[in-house]
Amino acid sequence: MRMMIRRDPIFREMAAWRNAMDRLFDEMVDNRGYWEQPAAWALALDVAEKDDAFIVKASIPGINPDDLEITLTDNVLTIKGEIKENKEFEDAQWHLRERRYGAFQRSITLPTPVDANAIEATYDDGVLTLNVPKVEEVKPKRIAVKAS
């Protein structure tokens, strides 16, 4: 006579979650520099599209605008820079250190052709704003309908 054993799918999922958490904690212990800030970090961006342009914003407090490099190649916008580390408290014992420093870079591909010669960049109160106009043939044209 055969015996049926009923399996509980919830128990199997709980065991899988536990194994995943064990692996995560093992990786954190094995990687001594896990919590340290990487040498280069990706810049967070806000990108909005209007009828005639893209507006790109990035919060980069504490950077000298002369240390920013902004390029456009084949409709790929790239923002590079470096925030210098403050060496003022080199001999101090840090209790909390969350401010970012070091090199950063971010590239995005814009979905429509833009006019590279008309891009305007401003830096105000730690916020970089780029106004990236679309080329003339991509801008939407309003066609008036005449009633007879």
Protein model, in words:
- The chain is an alpha+beta fold and 148 residues long.
- It has a domain of 86 residues: Immunoglobulin-like (Sandwich).
- 15% of the residues lie in helices and 32% in strands.
- The protein is built from 1 helix and 8 strands, in the order αββββββββ.
- The strands form 2 sheets. A 4-stranded mixed β-sheet has the order 1-6-5-4, with no helix packed on it. The chain has a 4-stranded antiparallel β-sheet with strand order 2-3-8-7, with no helix packed on it.
- A hairpin with a 2-residue loop joins strand 7 and strand 8.
- It starts with 8 loop residues before the first helix and ends in a 15-residue tail after the last strand.
- The model has no long low-confidence stretch (mean pLDDT 83).
Strand order of the largest sheet: 1-6-5-4
Mean pLDDT: 83
What is the CATH C-level name of the domain at 40-86 and 99-137? Mainly Beta
Oligomer: single chain
CATH architecture of the domain at 40-86 and 99-137: Sandwich
Question: SSE string, helix = H, strand = E?
Answer: HEEEEEEEE
Task: Estimate what percentage of residues fall within beta strands.
Answer: 25-35%
Looking at the structure, what is the overall shape?
flat
| Largest pleated sheet | 4 strands, mixed
Fill in the keyword field for this structure.
single chain, about 150 residues, alpha+beta, Immunoglobulin-like, 4-stranded mixed sheet, 4-stranded antiparallel sheet
Structure, briefly:
This protein is α+β, with helices and mostly antiparallel strands. Helices cover 15% and strands 32% of the residues.
